[in-house]
Amino acid sequence: MMTLYSGTVCPYSHRCRIVLFEKGMDFQVIDVDLANKPEDLAVINPYNTVPVLVERDLVLQQANIINEYIDERFPHPQLMPADPVMRARARLFLHDFERQLFSHIEDIETGSVKAAEKARTTIRDNLTQIVPLFSKQEYILGDEFSMLDVALAPLLWRLGHYGIVMPNQAAPLLKYAERIFSRPAYIEALTPSEKAMRK
Domain-by-domain residue ranges, the chain? Predict the structure, then answer.
């Protein structure tokens, strides 16, 4: 059985939980309090970070690597495109999400007031740029829910929590977010602390 060491409020761990629930397979989630990490985490993962996936003698860290492994190991439903060209494009999208969106979260969580405000503005502006996608299609890659939707969902869930206010023209993006949030696997993947973020 796979075991996921998962931060209860970590957006990267949230991604991995979504994928595991979408696949509907047997797995164990060990909730990790990021302020009080268990000692065995540092033994398993020298970076002492979450998420970490353990399956027999395989140990993986980094959400996108974990999720691609799960997707290849349990191909149904397939979350990365089957076509090599589309798969390469999807990986590029995932890379861009990390650089243009997720790399700024740390400044919001632990940076100075000025750094946090700048990070909020950057994330808001970068999200606003992808809004046109959702006036034409259901999901990022078209009609099919994919790994890109998985990657973006935890950030969209936390917009209010992070103090990011989207402009009126972002309505198609917020409607898209609600579509993802209503998926049964998405709801199952939420921790009580994450649910509390949108009360």
Answer: 2-77+190-195, 84-183
Q: What are the tens digits of pLDDT across the range 23-72?
A: 998 999 999 988 888 888 989 998 999 999 999 999 999 999 999 999 99
According to CATH, what is the number of the domain 84-183?
A: 1.20.1050.10
* Contacts for 183-191: CB closer than 8 Å, 24+ residues apart: 183/22, 183/145, 184/21, 185/18, 185/21, 185/22, 185/24, 186/18, 186/21, 186/153, 188/21, 189/14, 189/17, 189/18, 189/20, 189/21, 190/14, 190/17, 191/6, 191/8, 191/9, 191/14, 191/17, 191/31
Topology, domain 2-77+190-195:
Glutaredoxin (3.40.30)
Q: Is the pTM of this model over 0.90?
A: yes
The letter for the amino acid at 84 is P
User: How many whole angstroms separate alpha carbon 2 and alpha carbon 24?
Assistant: 12
Comparing 2-77+190-195 with 84-183, is the CATH topology the same? no
The upper half-sphere exposure of residue 151, i.e. CA atoms within 13 Å in the direction of its Cβ, equals 27
The Cα–Cα gap between 186 and 60 comes to 22
Average pLDDT of the chain, as a whole number: 95
H helices present in the chain, as ranges: 11-23, 39-44, 63-73, 84-100, 105-110, 113-129, 133-136, 147-157, 171-181, 184-189, 192-195
